[in-house]
Amino acid sequence: MTNDLRVGVIGVGMMGADHAHRIVDRVSGATLVAVSDPDTARASTLAGQFNGVRLIADPLDLIADEGVDAVIIASPGFVHEEQLLACIEHGKHALCEKPLTMDTESSLRVVEAEATSGRPLIQVGFMRRFDPEYAAMKALLDSRSLGRTLVVHNIHRNKTVPDSFRSEMIVRDSLVHEVDVCRWLFGEEVASIQVLAPTPTGLAGEGVLDPQIALFTMAGGGIVTNEVFVNCQIGYEVRCEAVAERGNATIGLGQGVFVRRDNHYGGAIPDDFRDRFGRAYDLEVQAWADASRRGEVVGPTSWDGYAATAVCTAGMESLLSGKAVPVELANRPDPGCRA
Ligand code: ISE
What we know:
With 339 residues, this protein is α/β, with parallel strands linked by helices. The protein has two domains: 5-127, NAD(P)-binding Rossmann-like Domain (Rossmann fold), CATH 3.40.50.720; 128-279 and 310-326, Dihydrodipicolinate Reductase, domain 2 (2-Layer Sandwich), CATH 3.30.360.10. Helix content is 36%, strand content 22%. The chain contains ten helices and 16 strands. It has helices at residues 14-25, 40-47, 59-64, 80-89, 104-117, 132-143, 167-186, 273-276, 278-294, 302-321; strands spanning 5-10, 30-36, 54-55, 70-73, 93-96, 122-124, 149-157, 190-196, 212-218, 223-229, 237-244, 248-251, 260-261, 264-265, 267-268, 325-326. The strands form three sheets. Strands 12-11-7-10-9-8-16 form a seven-stranded mixed sheet, covered by helices on one side. Helix 4 (80-89) runs parallel beside helix 5 and helix 7 (167-186) crosses helix 10 (302-321). The radius of gyration is 20 Å and the shape is globular. The two termini are 26 Å apart. Residues 255-260 have low confidence and may be disordered. Residues 158, 173-174, 177, 230, 273 line the site of (2R,3S,4s,5R,6S)-2,3,4,5,6-pentahydroxycyclohexanone.
C-alpha cells in the first residue's frame, strides 16, 4: 500500500469517473488519492464514494500536489496541452485520454516539451492496443504467417451521440482510434487521408455528416477503409478485418447472426465503449500504473498522439473538400528519453 502509485484524476465525466472506479476496484499497485473537475459537485460526489480521496478544485494544483505521483487526464481536449505541460514540468506520469490535444501544433509542443525534459512521461489513451482481440491480431500480422498486410477494413459504430457531437468530432474523437490502430498494426505512418460523407442519416443532429467513410493510404502503400457511424441506433460495434497475402483476420464479430437491432446481434451488442473495451481499459491503466512506478512509459506515446492529431487535422480538412489531403509530420525529436 505504501509503495502504491498515488493517482489523481482530472475530469470526472464519463471516462474519468470510470477510470476512478477502475483504480479503486481493479488496478493493483495504485491508489486513488485526488480528483478535480470544474463541476465541483460532481467531483465531490465521486470523491465521497471512496475513503481518503481529496477534491482539489484547480487541476494544476492537483498536478503540483506532493501527495500525487501520477495523473489521469480525462478532461476535455482543449485543456490537455496546459495540463500535460504541467505534468512534464512536475515530472509526473500522465495517462491522457485522446485526443492528445486539439491541433497538430499544440500536440507537437507537448512532444517537444517531453523530449526536452529528458524523461518519458506521457501515455495516450488509445486503449485498443490493450484489447486482447486487437493484440492477438497484431501478433498474428507481425508473425507474417499470413504474409504482408495489404488492406484493413474498419467499422466503428456508436449507438447514439448527443447533437453537440459535430461532424469534425467524428474524425477527431472517433476515427482517431482507427488512425492509431492502423499506424500500430502496419507499423507505419498514415501518408494521406480522405474523408467522404454519404447523404447523412436522418437520426443525426442537424447538419452533422454521419456516417463518414475515411480512406487512409499508409506510407508503405497499404490502404485502409473506415466506416464511422456514431448514430447507428443498434449498439456499439467495432470490427476490424486485416487482409494479408495469404489470408485475412477479423476481430469484433459477435456470435454469427443476420439481424442487428435493438441492442441485439445474435448475442448482445454492448451499449458503449466502456463495456466493449472494459478489459482493454483495465489492462491499459494497469500497464500505465506499473510502468509509472518503474519510471517508464509503455503503449502509445506522445508522438503517437501527435501523429494521430496530424492525421485527423488533415481528415477534417478533407471532410470539407472531399479531396485526399497529404499528412505532413515534423521530424521526430530525439526519442533518446524513451526507456
Ligand atoms: C469516444 O470518445 C471514444 O473514445 C469511443 O471509443 C468512441 O467509440 C467514440 O466514438 C468516442 O466518442
